[in-house]
Specification:
The complex is a heterotrimer of chains A (195), B (356) and C (560).
Chain A: H1 15-40, H2 51-54, H3 57-82, H4 86-116, H5 126-157, H6 166-193
Helix pairs in contact in A: 1-5, 1-6, 3-4, 3-6, 4-5, 5-6
Chain B: H1 2-24, H2 55-88, H3 106-134, E1 144-151, E2 154-160, E3 167-171, E4 173-177, E5 182-188, E6 193-195, E7 204-206, E8 212-216, E9 222-227, E10 240-246, H4 248-259, H5 269-277, H6 280-283, E11 285-286, E12 290-291, E13 306-307, E14 312-313, H7 316-324, H8 326-329, H9 342-353
Parallel strand pairs in B: 1-5, 4-10
Antiparallel strand pairs in B: 1-2, 2-3, 5-8, 6-7, 9-10, 11-12, 13-14
Helix pairs in contact in B: 2-3, 5-9, 7-9
Chain C: H1 10-15, H2 18-26, H3 31-60, H4 70-105, H5 113-136, H6 167-195, H7 208-240, H8 253-287, H9 294-307, H10 323-351, H11 360-383, H12 385-391, H13 395-425, H14 431-457, H15 474-504, H16 542-547
Helix pairs in contact in C: 3-4, 3-5, 3-15, 4-5, 4-6, 4-8, 4-13, 5-6, 6-7, 7-8, 7-9, 8-10, 8-11, 8-13, 9-10, 10-11, 11-13, 11-14, 13-14, 14-15
The chains are: A mainly alpha (195), B alpha+beta (356), C mainly alpha (560).
């Protein structure tokens, strides 16, 4: 039952790409909600520790460098897989995960300081509420990303990841880039604007 | 046919279980006590938004007529064409084949984009004009400034004394002078409520941690009724509003009476002592006697016409029933029954009845 | 391309046990089965939500009624609203889209079939979690722990202070979980529509239903996460001592409202755009004319999608926003009336000059146009801010949104069920019963909701378990309650019609309505793989082109 075929080619992204773009859109909206709440409550904490008193920029900057570098390493890993250089693929992926874990550990260290030294908890004041929820939401996404990357690394170590998986792995790397991009937004909101 | 029956049965079981359990918990009066036979219903009245009695309500009414007029005209035209199409283009037996396929028409599509845009533009202009008239950002000149505090499920009012140096604190029933603007400052002690007396103005929400304002000016003496218009919990339905507008001289007399200290009748000293010894004083203030702020100020309780923010008329029987167990009249309200002995109850009620 | 589950003969089908058949449905990733399960669950909750409403109307039939106590009533209106929006509207609309979209675009399934199944079962679990609250725990005054904070759950009524116990938690978690299901389905729909159209089907050759679902899917992707975020904040408040909406510690009740309505307004467009989609398919077929002005319909739909993200605070005119903000949101709300009106006019323009056959789908579609126009006009009235100051939170608003959601969406759903039931099951539904159903429902619906406009004008607020006598409200409330009887009878008749149709309906054949879109080119019901051959199309009405080779649509494409 065919009739006249259409002349122009129609732009067709892959299912994975379109799907990941949608996931990123959903996640962006969730993050935006917490960012809006953060901005709304800047300067409104009547009592308790205030941002400029407790924020330690050097530590956070180091964590940030680690996380953003991991975006570079993951791109290298994707390219290695596309070239079927499985050794390089695994090494760059492992480095990505290590950098991500550095970020997680560094953030944990930061929180430990805030709680033990400054007495800032989620219920202390509005700053505590919005800080821990926004940074925590991001941290949760980092952990989810690291889990997925680790699964790929383990599969890769067993030699089960082949070139035909490069596109799917690329889409996973997009998620990782998204997590990093969100960190730039969160960093700006909390450590630049909010301070 | 059995499927819907099963659903119905399940729901009935669930809900009957619900109702049975709640009925078991002694809910005798789930509805407001209306009135004694022969007595007019104290809450009878007109809350019709078109029976305006105050400038902002008039403005809204005028605008409403304009808007209803425009929308009614659109309704008649659109539904008229719909009905005409249904009749005129109904398939007839003699019709054969398909009708002419019309893909669109630029002029027609332009028309039904532009004309509605013009109509809504007109409505927008009218809207903005009336917003400016009704929503004032500062008190009108000479306004009586009243603080309203919304509580779960009663209203607190604080007015300035006649000489402006002090505060009159009362509950649930607001008395205002005719012809003078009243500027309400709305605050909430707990959750979101909404102050709505349709004949005086539209509503404005009463939100904790967020101060709002509302104004009106009663143009004639009378009782203007309303109720809370934002769901605020169990007894939202019985958080009634009662605004009594009186001539200025009568208003001054009312203020003077409210400013008097509470009646201290030695005949009911026993009741007053009970009031202080039991937990009553913790929630209720009587000026110079007790300091509680969780419940209404009772200094001039008997100057009011209803109890429980309108749930029943105020008379010795309803007062006794209320003090005995408020849950009888207003199930779910925040005042507990103190399970008083009849003698204690009589004494306290006798005392309260003297607080004119 | 046969699948493992597809039986090879009728005899095999009979031999499969009941358990095996149920199992095949439960593990299915076929969009058609998932779509039908979505619709079935949605209809089940429609009955439950209807019972909740009927109980409320029984209580309100008289002033100072004593049928139901305040706490139970407050639970009923909360659960009724929550059920109808999240457990009826969303699943039925997303479910029918699930069923139809791959068939309409000439695809074999959705882009992510397993994700599709995951979404359905998330929805089911969320619904079960929400309804478990009725029996799961003790609430206040001996009632159940069902949520009683209203479907929009304003803070700080939802804080631990004012809602101790777990009712609010059931509301949050039940909706959050079903919300994830809606999000995954929306992603699936958007990706499927963008990526899996058959050769020749450009975006401007898709059935308009697909356009509606594309915009709806994008709205879900933008709006529901905001609700999820707000609910997560509320959970943090309730369990970890956070202060997002804790007004006693500096939090803001208004923030909850902004976040909720930023979701809540697009949500109502999510509930109505698919119904518009149904009408876009049904009206042309029963008028025997192509839709009047396809391009403008697409433009209007996209415009509605955009503008709907900018009107949210028209639910908040009474909270004391500045005059400028009030005016802004009023203006955007007026603006959205224009593309919505364009749709109504377009349908009527399609009817004019047509040859209208009033089968049951067309009856419901016409009823939709009539009721939705009325509801849309009361919406325009509510956009007039000062009038909203009188009428918001009154029964006038209840009347308005029931006209657009019941007279609109629900009527659209029934139109769709009567239209596509033959395709999904291979059998026709009885026309006579269908017509009785329509007229009973139409009568009952108007009898219930038309008087509510008056109750609102007479000062009756929403969400009150009992109203004062002698305020002129009795007669209007009584009429509203009487209307319920008609609706109950109507819905019972509908359920019987469906069951009767499944058992003894006339065999439908591929295209009983002589329609023109791809789903009618395959068998009824379609095989699991949808099409024996993936079609190639040259216009928006492929089957019209086949039936009318002397005048195919492809010749008129520049006019569309």
């Amino acid at each position: 039952m065919s009739v006249v075929a259409s002349e122009q080619p129609i732009w067709r992204p892959s299912r994975g790409k379109a799907g990941m773009i949608c996931v990123i859109a959903v996640e962006s909206c969730i993050f935006l909600t917490f960012v809006v709440a953060y901005l709304f409550y800047i300067g409104k904490s009547a009592t308790g520790p205030q941002p400029k008193d407790v924020i330690e920029l050097p530590l956070v900057l180091v964590n940030t460098v680690a996380l953003l570098s991991s975006s570079v390493t993951v791109v290298l890993s994707v390219k290695a897989l596309e070239r079927e250089n499985f050794g390089a693929f695994c090494r760059w992926l492992a480095l990505t995960i290590v950098l991500g874990l550095w970020f997680v550990g560094g953030t944990g260290w930061e929180w430990k300081g805030l709680m033990q030294d400054d007495g800032l908890y989620i219920g202390t004041n509005l700053f505590g509420t919005t800080f821990y929820s926004l940074v925590g939401l991001h941290l949760l996404h980092v952990v989810v990303g690291l889990t997925m990357l680790s699964i790929v690394l383990i599969l890769g170590a067993f030699g089960l990841v082949r070139k035909r998986h490069a596109h799917s792995f690329d889409m996973l790397s997009w998620y990782w880039h998204f997590v990093d991009a969100v960190w730039i937004v969160v960093f700006t909101t909390v450590y630049v604007i909010g301070r | 046919m059995s499927f819907p029956k099963i659903i119905l049965a399940l729901m009935l079981i669930l809900c009957c279980g619900d109702i049975a359990r709640s009925n078991a918990a002694d809910s005798v009066g789930v509805a407001p006590v209306v009135c004694a036979p022969g007595e007019a219903n104290i809450n009878a009245g007109e809350l019709n938004i078109f029976k305006s009695a105050s400038p902002p309500a008039h403005e809204i009414k005028e605008l409403a007529w304009l808007v209803i007029g425009i929308c009614a005209a659109i309704f008649v035209v659109v539904e008229g064409i719909l009905v005409w199409s249904i009749i005129r283009f109904r398939k007839r037996a003699r019709d054969v084949g398909e009708p002419v396929q019309v893909f669109g028409s630029n002029p027609v599509e332009l028309a039904w984009t532009v004309v509605p845009t013009i109509i809504v533009f007109v409505l927008a202009l009218a809207t903005v004009r009336t917003i400016r008239e009704v929503q004032l950002t500062e008190p009108p000149e000479g306004a009586l400034q009243v603080d309203v505090i919304g509580h779960q499920w009663w209203w607190e009012y604080r007015l300035p004394t006649l000489d402006g140096s002090g505060t009159i604190i009362t509950a649930n029933e607001l008395v205002v002078p005719v012809g003078r603007p009243v500027w309400l400052t709305l605050r909430s002690a707990d959750v979101i409520h909404s102050w709505w007396v349709p004949q005086l103005n539209g509503k404005t929400d009463v939100i904790p941690n967020h101060v709002n304002h509302l104004w009106f000016a009663a143009e004639r003496p009378g009782i203007f009724l309303g109720q809370c218009a934002e769901y605020c919990g169990t007894q939202h339905a019985n958080m009634l509003l009662r605004v009594t507008a009186v001539e200025p001289a009568e208003f001054d007399a009312w203020c003077a009476a409210q400013e008097l200290p509470p009646v201290n009748d030695p005949a009911v000293a026993a009741g007053k002592q009970q009031f202080l010894d039991l937990a009553c004083m913790n929630c209720h203030a009587i000026n110079g006697v007790s300091d509680g702020s969780f419940g209404p100020n009772l200094t001039h309780l008997m100057s009011r016409t209803t109890i429980g923010s309108g749930v029943a008329p105020l008379n010795p029987q309803t007062l006794r029933s209320w003090v005995d167990d408020p849950q009888n009249l207003k199930m779910g309200c925040n005042m507990p029954s103190l399970k008083l002995e009849p003698e204690q109850l009589d004494a306290i009620v006798a005392y309260l009845l003297t607080l004119k | 391309m046969t699948s493992v589950n597809h039986p090879s003969s009728a005899a095999d089908e009979v031999r499969r046990s009941f358990g095996a058949r149920v199992h095949s449905w439960v593990v299915s990733v076929d969009h058609k089965r998932l779509g039908m399960m979505y619709v079935a669950f949605g209809l089940f909750f429609f009955v439950i939500g209807g019972i909740e409403a009927a109980m409320m109307r029984a209580q309100l039939a008289q002033a100072a009624g004593k049928f139901i106590d305040p706490t139970t009533f407050n639970q009923l209106f909360t659960m009724h609203g929550t059920t109808m929006v999240f457990l009826v509207g969303m699943p039925i609309l997303l479910g029918t889209a699930n069923y139809l979209i791959p068939l309409m675009i000439g695809a074999r399934d959705m882009a992510f079939p397993r994700l599709n199944a995951f979404g359905l079962w998330l929805f089911v679990f969320g619904a079960a979690l929400l309804y478990y609250s009725y029996i799961g725990a003790q609430g206040l005054y001996g009632t159940s722990a069902a949520p009683d904070v209203g479907w929009f759950a304003y803070a700080p009524l939802t804080s631990k202070t004012f809602s101790p116990g777990n009712s609010t938690d059931y509301w949050i978690l039940g909706i959050m979980v079903s919300g994830f299901g809606s999000i995954t389905t929306a992603i699936n729909l958007v990706v499927t529509i963008l990526v899996m159209r058959c050769p020749g089907m450009s975006l401007m050759r898709m059935p308009l239903m697909c356009w509606m679902m594309l915009v709806t899917g994008i709205l879900v992707i933008i709006a529901i996460p905001v609700l999820t975020g707000a609910q997560a904040m509320l959970l943090l408040d309730r369990f970890l001592g956070a202060h997002f909406f804790d007004t006693q510690n500096g939090g803001s009740a208004v923030l909850w409202q902004h976040l909720f309505w930023f979701f809540g307004h697009p949500e109502v467009y999510i509930l109505v755009l698919p119904a518009f989609g149904f009408l876009n398919e049904i009206i042309p077929v029963f008028c025997r004319k192509i839709i009047f002005g396809y391009s403008l319909m697409v433009a209007a739909t996209v415009a509605i999608g955009f503008i709907s993200l900018s009107v949210w605070a028209h639910h908040m005119f009474a909270i004391g926003m500045s005059p400028e903000l009030n005016a802004f949101f009023s203006a955007t709300t007026f603006l959205i009336a224009v593309p919505t009106g364009i749709k109504i006019f377009t349908w009527m323009g399609t009817m004019v000059g047509g040859r209208i056959h009033f089968a049951t789908p067309m009856l419901f579609a016409t009823g939709f146009i009539a009721m939705f126009t009325f509801g849309g006009l009361t919406g325009v009235m509510l956009a007039v801010v000062p009038l909203d100051w009188q009428l918001s939170d009154s029964y006038f608003v209840v009347a308005h949104f029931h006209y657009v959601l019941f007279g609109g969406t629900v009527f659209g759903i029934f139109a769709a069920i009567f239209y596509w039931f033959p395709k999904a099951t291979g059998r026709m539904l009885c026309e006579t019963k269908g017509k009785w159903f329509f007229w009973l429902l139409f009568t009952g619906f108007n009898l219930t909701f038309l008087p509510m406009h008056i109750s609102g004008i007479l000062g009756m607020p929403r969400r009150i378990y009992s109203y004062q006598p002698d305020r002129g409200l009795e007669i209007w409330n009584l009429l509203s309650s009487v209307g319920v009887i008609f609706q109950v009878v109507a819905v019972a008749l509908f359920l019987w019609t469906v069951i009767d149709g499944l058992r003894r309906g006339k065999i439908a054949g591929n295209n009983p309505w002589n329609a023109w879109t791809l789903e009618w080119s395959t068998t009824s019901p379609p095989p699991e793989w949808n099409f024996d051959q993936i079609p190639i199309v040259g216009s928006a009405r492929p089957l019209w082109d086949v039936a009318n080779p002397h005048d195919p649509d492809s010749r008129h494409e520049e006019h569309i």
